[in-house]
């Protein structure tokens, strides 16, 4: 049996590749989950359209699961995380430009797909880079990061939308995703897949 690396070393290795990108993505995702339905209320469609925004995002996450797993096995976990974050950057920036309910539904669906790819690939990355005996502690840090994002995201949405408007706040969130992507590119090591 091989000796496990010290837990502190494992945690340090996860900072740039998993923890920082996860925090930034969680803040952006939770802000978007608040903003899309509120933005949709400005269009003719009312509460039904607002609820549909959340449903479309959930559908996107589900649609990404199976193809995301297949992409991880072919391209590698790092590159699917990159693809998920790149898609999130693009659709969040595009949300700033769209002014119709149907366009926002597409944004919500694609945001879900990007989130699904990110989540699946991140889980695969953890499987590849963290020993089973240490994985629970790493996952608990990620859970804490998501809870922080659930707190900070809606606050950022409210603080941003009120003075700046929806478009500028969507662009700020796209920047958060871009910083997450940069941290990932600098820190993550690819392992899984034929192109890793």
Order of helices and strands: HHHHHH
Tell me the name of the CATH class.
Mainly Alpha
Structural classification: mainly alpha
Low-confidence stretches: none
User: CATH homologous superfamily - what is it?
Assistant: MFS general substrate transporter like domains
Kindly give the count of domains: 1
CATH topology: Growth Hormone, Chain: A
Tell me the number of helical segments per DSSP (H or I, 4 or more residues long).
6
What Rg, in angstroms, do the CA atoms define?
A: 17 Å
CATH architecture: Up-down Bundle
Largest sheet: none
Number of DSSP strand runs: 0
Shape descriptor reads: elongated
**Which band does the percent of strand residues land in?**
under 5%
Helix-residue proportion: over 70%
Overview of the molecule:
With 196 residues, the chain is mainly α. The chain has one domain: Up-down Bundle (Growth Hormone, Chain: A). 85% of the residues lie in helices and 0% in strands. The chain has six helices and no strands. It has helices at 7-40, 46-75, 77-95, 101-129, 132-164, 166-187. Helix 1 (7-40) packs antiparallel against helix 4 and helix 5 (132-164) runs antiparallel to helix 6. The longest helix is centred in the first third of the chain and has 34 residues, at 7-40. It is elongated and about 60 Å long. The model has no long low-confidence stretch (mean pLDDT 92).
């Amino acid at each position: 049996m091989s000796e496990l690396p010290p837990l502190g070393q494992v945690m340090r290795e996860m900072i740039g590749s998993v923890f920082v990108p996860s925090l930034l993505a969680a803040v952006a995702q939770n802000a978007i989950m608040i903003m899309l339905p509120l933005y949709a209320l400005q269009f003719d469609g009312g509460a039904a359209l607002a609820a549909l925004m959340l449903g479309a995002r959930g559908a996107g996450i589900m649609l990404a699961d199976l193809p995301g797993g297949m992409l991880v096995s072919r391209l590698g976990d790092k590159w699917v995380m990159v693809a998920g974050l790149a898609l999130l950057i693009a659709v969040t920036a595009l949300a700033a430009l769209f002014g119709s309910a149907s366009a926002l539904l597409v944004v919500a669906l694609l945001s879900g797909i990007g989130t699904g790819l990110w989540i699946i690939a991140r889980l695969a990355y953890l499987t590849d880079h963290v020993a089973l005996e240490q994985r629970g502690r790493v996952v608990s840090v990620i859970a804490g990061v998501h809870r922080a994002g659930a707190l900070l995201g809606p606050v950022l949405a409210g603080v941003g939308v009120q003075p700046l408007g929806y478009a500028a706040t969507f662009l700020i969130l796209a920047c958060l995703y871009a910083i997450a992507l940069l941290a990932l590119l600098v820190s993550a090591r690819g392992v899984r897949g034929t192109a890793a």
